[in-house]
Amino acid sequence: MFERGDARTPHRVLRYPMGHPRLEALLSPTMEAIRADPELGERVNDVRFLVTLRGSAALVTITYNRPIGEEWKAAAEALAESFAARNLGRVNFVGRSRKVKVVAGDDVIEEELEVPGPEGRSRRVRYAQMEGAFTQPNAAVCEKMLEWAVDATAGSEGEDLCELYCGNGCFTLALAPNFRRVLATEMSAASVRLARRNVEANQADNVRVVRLSAEDFVQAYAGTREFR
């Protein structure tokens, strides 16, 4: 995004009032700190934020057009400590450059989403969200989508569900109580690990997550090819 009438000058976004308050609170301090520190600010490509609907953890990813290493990690850890001292909460930083990923803190944060439960009561589903893996970008909208999906599949307890490309198990875990058994597939190895972690965290004993493409699943279902 560039300044109006100027295709060369990027438009600086220093506030995001329509976003989550946690994101709004972190945006300016993070950008100011990056600009003030040569190790953090040299040849930055972009900065990405991931916050949760509930809780105070945040994940900030900074990508670079240069190599990064231990010096970058030390600078990012110092920034995280300064944010904690300023009551900005726990902030994890991930630095990325070509074929390199450096983590200061953790590259996973925990989210909780409310979905409809038995007898009209809501229940909370826990999700680990990993840097770089697909997650729903708007948690409040995601809760509405999950609510619709749970209501739409009510009364399916005697049936089985197959979900293709399940990501971190967002819909999988919300829908699992409505079905007898659930098979969730995903191609990304990182997403498979994350989905299995979330299945275990939510004690969803009727869910199995496997690494298969849609084409692989069709072949397995039709019995034309066997998979391990």
UniProtKB/TrEMBL annotation:
<dbReference type="Pfam" id="PF05958">
    <property type="entry name" value="tRNA_U5-meth_tr"/>
</dbReference>
<dbReference type="InterPro" id="IPR011869">
    <property type="entry name" value="TrmA_MeTrfase"/>
</dbReference>
<keyword id="KW-0808">Transferase</keyword>
<dbReference type="GO" id="GO:0032259">
    <property type="term" value="P:methylation"/>
</dbReference>
<feature type="binding site">
    <location>
        <position position="165"/>
    </location>
    <ligand>
        <name>S-adenosyl-L-methionine</name>
    </ligand>
</feature>
<feature type="binding site">
    <location>
        <position position="136"/>
    </location>
    <ligand>
        <name>S-adenosyl-L-methionine</name>
    </ligand>
</feature>
<keyword id="KW-0489">Methyltransferase</keyword>
<dbReference type="GO" id="GO:0005829">
    <property type="term" value="C:cytosol"/>
</dbReference>
<comment type="similarity">
    <text>Belongs to the class I-like SAM-binding methyltransferase superfamily. RNA M5U methyltransferase family.</text>
</comment>
<dbReference type="GO" id="GO:0000049">
    <property type="term" value="F:tRNA binding"/>
</dbReference>
<dbReference type="GO" id="GO:0019843">
    <property type="term" value="F:rRNA binding"/>
</dbReference>
<protein>
    <recommendedName>
        <fullName>tRNA(Phe) (4-demethylwyosine(37)-C(7)) aminocarboxypropyltransferase</fullName>
    </recommendedName>
</protein>
<dbReference type="InterPro" id="IPR029063">
    <property type="entry name" value="SAM-dependent_MTases_sf"/>
</dbReference>
<keyword id="KW-0819">tRNA processing</keyword>
<dbReference type="GO" id="GO:0008033">
    <property type="term" value="P:tRNA processing"/>
</dbReference>
<dbReference type="GO" id="GO:0030697">
    <property type="term" value="F:tRNA (uracil(54)-C5)-methyltransferase activity, S-adenosyl methionine-dependent"/>
</dbReference>
<dbReference type="InterPro" id="IPR010280">
    <property type="entry name" value="U5_MeTrfase_fam"/>
</dbReference>
<keyword id="KW-0949">S-adenosyl-L-methionine</keyword>
<feature type="binding site">
    <location>
        <position position="186"/>
    </location>
    <ligand>
        <name>S-adenosyl-L-methionine</name>
    </ligand>
</feature>
